[in-house]
Amino acid sequence: MDLKPLKGQHHVSAITADAKRNYEFYTKTLGLRLVKKTVNQDDTSVYHLFYADERGNPGTDLTFFEIPRAGHTYEGSNSISATSLRVPKDASLQYWKERFETLGVEHDEITHETGRATLSFTDFEGQRLVLVSDEHNVGVDGGNPWDQSPIPKEHAIYGLGPVLLTVSQKELTSKILTDILGYREKRTFAAYGSEVTVYETGEGGTGAEIHLLERSDLPRERPGRGSVHHVAFRVESQEELNKWVAYLKEKRIPSSGFVERYYFKSLYFREPNGILFELATDGPGFEGDEPFEHLGESLALPPYFEDQRDSIEAKLKPLETK
After folding, report:
1. What Gene3D superfamilies does this protein's entry cite (predicted)?
2. CA angle 31, 144, 19 (to 5 degrees)
């Protein structure tokens, strides 16, 4: 089947138990823009918050489902165990290190073990995050920081970087990445007490890499607040997504089939170690129901949920985002 290469990361979706503190951390501490305040379309009693660049360009979205009763995350294998966020240059990491120290954000030291300058840190729930410098990066473009962000543009986060997958059986996930999704094995580096293999797709670079770590000695991760739910990869169009639906069926890989998400179109499946992958289209984007100037300020619902607005809003704790 004539499939175009995936273009890189589309979004990463994680879990929070506290939407208010989550909003404050990702907008005021990290300087991202809340481009959409909506609900989990599979459970409309749950907020789904999208943080990104100025307009939620594909490849810039870090999203959260609010599950107030989410328990502690017990870290382990078969998980998305770190999400990277792109910053413009090596000097940006020193800016962020000083900012984290001032604000009391837990962080490690700046390192180069991945082959790029990086700074690992966690949010208030232990979400595992990494700032990665794009100073020497060549590959897929990032987005455009919001001009009303509290972070100076020369240091602002403007996209998703490599996503780290920790698995118990590397070969199984590797075959899905290369044989099914068309990733190329690029290089290896030593980190996390083992060897990490880098896979890239499309134009490559920080916005199009998956880092794969095998840790058969670890128990399976038990997710909770501060864990990642799934990672999504970019597909150019709905026409291309339909080809992927047919291709996975042909390969006898169970999937959700086509799923309408309004802001994009999707397809979900689990790779053999149990990590949830999504393929998502670049469009239509987030300005179909809100103007650019007011993205994320009100509760946005896809048209097919609009007749349920009153009952949906009644189940949600108000969240001020203006």
Report:
1. 2,3-Dihydroxybiphenyl 1,2-Dioxygenase, domain 1 (3.10.180.10)
2. 35
Q: State how many domains the chain has.
A: 1
Instruction: Determine the structural domain holding residue 141 and report its residue range.
Output: 9-315
Q: Is residue 322 part of a domain?
A: no
DSSP strand pairing (259-260 vs 228-235): unpaired
**Is 287 within 8 Å of 55 (Cβ atoms)?**
yes
User: What is the per-residue pLDDT for 4?
Assistant: 95
pLDDT band at residue 322 using 50, 70 and 90 as cut-offs: confident
pLDDT digits (tens, 9 = 90+) for 56-102: 999 999 999 999 999 999 999 999 999 999 999 999 999 999 999 99
Per the omega criterion (within 30 degrees of 0), is the bond before 318 cis? no
Closest by Cα among 261, 256, 242, 259 to 303: 261
Could you give the percent of the chain with pLDDT greater than 70? Answer: 100
Q: Per the structure block, which two tokens stand in for 57?
A: 């360009």
Is 80 contained in some domain?
yes
What does the pLDDT look like over 246-285, one tens digit per residue? 999 999 999 999 999 999 999 999 999 999 999 999 999 9
Amino acid type, 256: S
Beta-strand runs (E) in 113-193: 118-122, 128-133, 160-167, 184-191
Q: Is the pLDDT of residue 1 over 80?
A: no
Beta bridge partners of 39: 47
Q: What is the CATH number of the domain that holds 189?
A: 3.10.180.10
Tell me how far apart the alpha carbons of residues 212 and 110 are, in angstroms, rounded to a whole number: 21
3-state SS class at 54: coil
pTM over 0.85: yes
Rounded CA gap, 248 and 267, in Å? 10
Residue 321 lies in a domain: no
